[in-house]
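tool=predict chain=A
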Amino acid sequence: DELLNHFLEVIPMVYIGFLHLWAPIVFGILSYFSNTIFIYIILRKTRSSFGAYKYMLMSFGIFDIMYSTVDMVVAMGSHSEGNTFCVFVSHGPFAHNIELGFKALCVRCMFFSLSYGVLEVHFIYRYIALCRPKWISIFSEPKWITVMALGVFGQGIVWFCSVYFCMWSDDEMRSYLEVPFRRDYNADVHKIPILGSTYWGASTKLIVRTSAGIVIVSIISCWTIFFCIWTGYTIFKTLNTADMSKNTKKMHRNLLKALAIQTFIPFAISYIPCVVAWSVPIIHVDTKSLNNFTAVIAVAAFPFIDPLAIMLLLPDYRNSLFRMFLPFNMIYVNFVHHWAPIVFGMLSYCCNSIFVFIVLKKTRSSFGAYKYMLMSFGIFDIMYSTVDMVVAMGSHSEGNTFCLFVSHGPFADDPEIGFAALCVRCMFFSLSYGVLEVHFIYRYVALCRPQWIPAFGDPKWITVMALGVFGQGIVWFCSVYFCMWSDDEMRSYLEVPFRRDYNADVYQVPILGSTYWGASTGLILRTSAGIVIISVISCWTIYFCIWIGWTIHSKLSVVEMSKTTKKMHRNLLKALAIQTFIPFAISYIPCVFAWSVPIIHVDTKSWNNITAVIAVAAFPFIDPLAIILLLPDYRNAFFKIFLPCVNRPGKTNPETITSNHSSKI
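tool=predict ok
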């Protein structure tokens, strides 16, 4: 707080929140990296058949770098309340001068329109390349290049003029925002660069002037959407009827797919949130400062995400990217399977670090040893995500066999080491069961056997519980290591599917699995034994958690304790129940389904990679949110740190007060 106050004294600033302040900077830096790599790969790895499109792709990367630069320099905030929507300069070099800041805001908004124009030119090129190939030479002529550049810039100028001449803020507009800005940002609205629109309950002149600006930018947005959809549909129809070689048609489809995703990304995560932000005041909906955590952050994110579409969809670029950053053997399953564990892993690091920090700083003394058990949850989730990213796991079920394999990463090169790594990865699946069981035991002891609660502070019993959790993991590890290893017979059943779906030699891939029927008796008995053991552990954990949870719930209904203490126990049980439901619903159940369906002759093939594998990666990120959002002390601490303008401390919830009659909870 002292550092922030000193910073505010030196640089004029409207502090909205941690995410709003840092997300544009982080995404801007990431955009510099991703677009620089994108341009480098285009320069070095583009085929000559791409022609002038090579330079158009480069223009995409250069524009995204410019976009991110403007977004970081002109730090933009947004607010919608009552009859008025506005954007303003929250901090940075343009925050101290109202006139200069207003012009900077207009330039920032102009880049919004320029991004439309860049997309339109790309769609025009793809349309001409396929539907009017005799015109393709114009993209190499300076005259026509200048015309297209002027068209894009002209559309940006129209947007600039619409906000500059129509949406400037007078004293009347600022008066409608005076109370919200003082309340939410502790700022004087008359000293902040602002542009916006007032829709009702104001002077006719203000409504007509500002609404005219909104109408113009809305028309440009609707035109761009219509143009891209119409051009894309025309290209798609032409591809279905065009007489060309299979390879040429495939290249056109890939380029159209990449352009469609490049269009969808800004529309979905940037344009639509912004249109919603400037439209909702018309229907009297107050989003207040929420726009700063949706539209503003989304606008900052898309220049980083945008170049990834082409790099990952076009095989030449994707292979070059992976050779640069992943120089080991790899089975490329699909985009989502490859990146979802990495994205969820990074989110898990952030979410669980925040969770551990809040538990460490904001836990009441009445929680006793449970404070450290909560922290163990967060630390374990971080370890789980690390293993999930390092041991990149794929799954396949077809015919008589279910298998897991290492798809890429440092363990993909060696079948023996990769198999051991897979077994460790599976062991963490069981360890997550054990962690849940210990938490249920603590809640049971705290309520039903309070005289035993000191055991959770006794090193001897802590060691016993840790060994119990680890022992369950070791049993799981041994069951897959000694029972589910793959021999040549098992691999022979997977040889055709792996060649067909992944273009991979199954004999070079680290694999474990189970074969259920139509194979040698030895193989069926050995692998099925492993499945039976891990299924028994899974069923036992489910039964144990349900039984303990029901016992605690029943005890809470009859136990004599203060209303406050009972509410706290109910909150903690509810949080633990949700923490249990999340992995069971989105992780364990899909996995049990994946290893069971071959028994009934159902082929899910590579679908497990879109369900079970991604779900397993997601739950360590989602898991800590249950306690943060369900327990009032943690929830208030979270909002105070990251969304201070949303945080409205009011009357203290009774369940957050420690009763004099309660002991350790």
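Residues 112 and 156 are 8 Å apart (CA to CA). Residues 204-241 form the longest helix (38 residues).
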